[in-house]
Here is the input.
Amino acid sequence: MNTTEENAAGAISGSLNVDDAEVERFRRIASEWWDAKGKFRPLHQLAPARLTFVRDELVRHFELKGTSLKPLKGLTVLDVGCGGGLVSEPLARMGARVTGLDPGRENVEAARAHVEGQTGPGGLDLSYRIGTIEDLAAEGAKFDAVVSLEVVEHVPDVGGFIKSCARLVRPGGALVFSTINRNLKSYALAIVAAEYVLGWLPRGTHQWDRFVTPDELAGYVAAAGLSRPTYRGIVYDVINDTWSLSDDTDVNYLAFCSAPSGTLPESRPHGA
Here is the structure.
């Protein structure tokens, strides 16, 4: 770990928009990130639907070919709240130059351990960093796209979080968020059922009052100077035990938006 990362990690507990209790919750189970049958099983099950949405929206927005094995080749992508790399690594396999960012040292170490030996020439263009979006924004870092999945509902100030993410996107770039709607249905399914009845998630993983409605998210996005979001829901098929994209945004949903138009430079130095 370099000095920059050590300083960033040391400053995390003082960040106004990082909930230390939330960070600690995920630190404690960081060794289980890549166990598809463990505590992160729901994220593994959600992966195909979430990654399909991210891939298709970025291909459409940047007018990429999208038919090759590396449909995102040439894009720089920041994965905010990357955890153990469940999103960062697949995006890198799609050809993107990915930076995974997380405030939890143990999460980043788990992500690095899983991808060890797969980076570098002929491997994945993927790097991980311990820190916050405020750290990167202060450095003036810019990316073609910022992706932050299942993070919005864990930050104290959603509006501030969205604005910080927007500062990290190049003119004409894109942002993708996923989170959970706030209503009685989401309380029943995402908390009561998922945490207490079915035991899909550790109890206390989510706080219902931090769930964000699509209208609220649209307000935060507008305040950050971004385009109005387009939404897709993710729904669970009980019979087949699978998740798929849907028009139903009552519980889990994804949002895509873009930064004000501008000409993206032909050369996209990683995180520059």
Q: What stands out?
A: Residues 41-62 form the longest helix (22 residues).
